[in-house]
């Protein structure tokens, strides 16, 4: 269980990025975080693992209050929070396998990681994860030889090898084409279901979020203005989150896409 209690972030400029956010996310639930640019979505994710320090309020993960931890305890807590980045954050000159194993850096000593002397159990798990994300045949390829979708799959495997209790996902599909975006969102949701893993996905594509997640949280000016199921995101709600626009087209697109996928599944 992740609990955000009156979480606030005020920057040195005086800007309030988060204004007393109250959210609970149970184990196994995948949540999409939506809202316009500047709404506080990325700040919220980074306040959870304290890459950004909250101004006030608390973050509690499975009974441990992260906002009270010192530097050493915070490093240990971050082991259990997998992060998936928009720009992949891979080391280009390293292989796919080496990038995945870098997710174990918090668990092995400096010299073992420096010389890439990981325990065999970690190597075996890396191979299992690469097979699960469809990249077992690319283990020895350099990261700079991969497509965007393949890089994101490496990032997913790297996050999961941490054996996390929570996934924090920042714009995982922003640089991907529509088909690859669906594949990546589907993969993340499937893996969370398999592992009973909670996830927060910061995403701009409302239709994609509606298609895959169990719950949507809408932020506007650092405040939660919607928290509920994706099928209840009505035009008036999207207007409250983003502002005036013809939102009927977005909702109709989602319905048509779901019908099309259902039909294809029936044929298969």
From TrEMBL:
InterPro entries: AAA+_ATPase, ABC_transporter-like_ATP-bd, ABC_transporter-like_CS, ABC_transpr_PhnC, MetN_ABC_transporter-like, P-loop_NTPase. The keyword Cell membrane applies. Coiled coil: none annotated. Pfam families: ABC_tran (PF00005). The keyword Ribosomal protein does not apply. GO terms for cellular component: membrane. One of its GO terms (molecular function) is ABC-type phosphonate transporter activity. Residues 2-246 form the ABC transporter domain. It comes from the Bacteria. Belongs to the ABC transporter superfamily. This is Phosphonate ABC transporter ATP-binding protein.
């Amino acid at each position: 269980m992740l609990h955000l209690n009156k979480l606030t972030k005020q920057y040195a400029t005086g800007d309030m990025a988060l204004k007393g956010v109250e959210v609970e996310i149970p184990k196994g639930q995948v949540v999409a975080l939506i809202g316009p640019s500047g709404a506080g979505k990325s700040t919220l994710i980074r306040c959870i693992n304290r890459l950004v320090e909250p101004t006030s309020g608390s973050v509690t993960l499975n009974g441990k209050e992260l906002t009270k931890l010192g530097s050493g305890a915070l490093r240990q807590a971050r082991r259990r929070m997998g992060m998936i980045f928009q720009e992949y954050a891979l080391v280009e000159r390293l292989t796919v396998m080496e990038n995945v194993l870098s997710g174990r850096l918090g668990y092995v000593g400096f010299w073992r990681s420096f010389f890439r002397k990981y325990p065999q159990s970690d190597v075996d798990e890396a191979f299992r994860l690469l097979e699960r994300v469809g990249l077992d045949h690319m283990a020895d390829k350099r990261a700079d030889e991969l497509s965007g979708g393949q890089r994101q799959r490496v990032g997913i495997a790297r996050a999961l090898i941490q054996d996390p209790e929570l996934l924090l996902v920042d714009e995982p599909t922003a640089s991907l084409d529509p088909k690859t975006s669906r594949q990546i969102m589907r993969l993340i949701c499937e893996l969370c279901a398999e592992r009973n893993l909670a996830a927060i996905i910061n995403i701009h594509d409302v239709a994609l979020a509606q298609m895959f997640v169990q719950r949507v949280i809408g932020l506007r000016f650092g405040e939660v203005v919607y928290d509920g199921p994706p099928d209840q995101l009505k035009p008036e709600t999207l207007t409250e989150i983003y502002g005036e626009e013809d939102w009927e087209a977005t909702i109709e697109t989602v319905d048509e896409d779901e019908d099309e996928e259902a039909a294809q599944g029936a044929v298969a």
